[in-house]
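Retro notes, structure queue

What went well: the backlog is down to a handful. What didn't: a couple of records were mislabeled last round, so from now on we paste the full input next to the output in the thread. Example, using Cleft lip and palate transmembrane protein 1 like protein from Characodon lateralis:
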Amino acid sequence: MTPQLFINYKMKSVAHLPWRMLTYKALNTFIDDLFAFVIKMPMMYRIGCLRDDVVFFIYLYQRWIYRVDPNRVNEYGTSGLDHTQNNTAETTPAVTDKPEGEKKND
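Corresponding output:
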C-alpha cells in the first residue's frame, strides 16, 4: 500500500482508486489490528500492524485532500459529467490539428 501513497502524491489525485479497494483495505486493517492485539503475537508483528495503520490513515488523508474531479477523463475516455446537456454545443478542434491545407501533404 505504500507505493500507492507515492502514486497518489505524484498524480495529486485518487480518482483512479475505487471505493471497493478502500473498503477492502479498511476491513483488512481492522481485522489485522484485532488479531494482533487480542491474540498473543510477537512484538514485531504488532509494530508492523501499527505501521499499516499509519499508512492507511495517510491514505485516508489523501482521499480527503485530493477530491475526485468530475471533469477529469478516465482511461476509458469518459468523465463524471452529464453529457446530455452539452449535445448542442459545437465541438472545437484540438490544438494539435493542422490546417486543412497542410493535412493533404501528409
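Agreed that this is the format going forward. Reviewer comment attached to the example: The chain has a mean pLDDT of 76.
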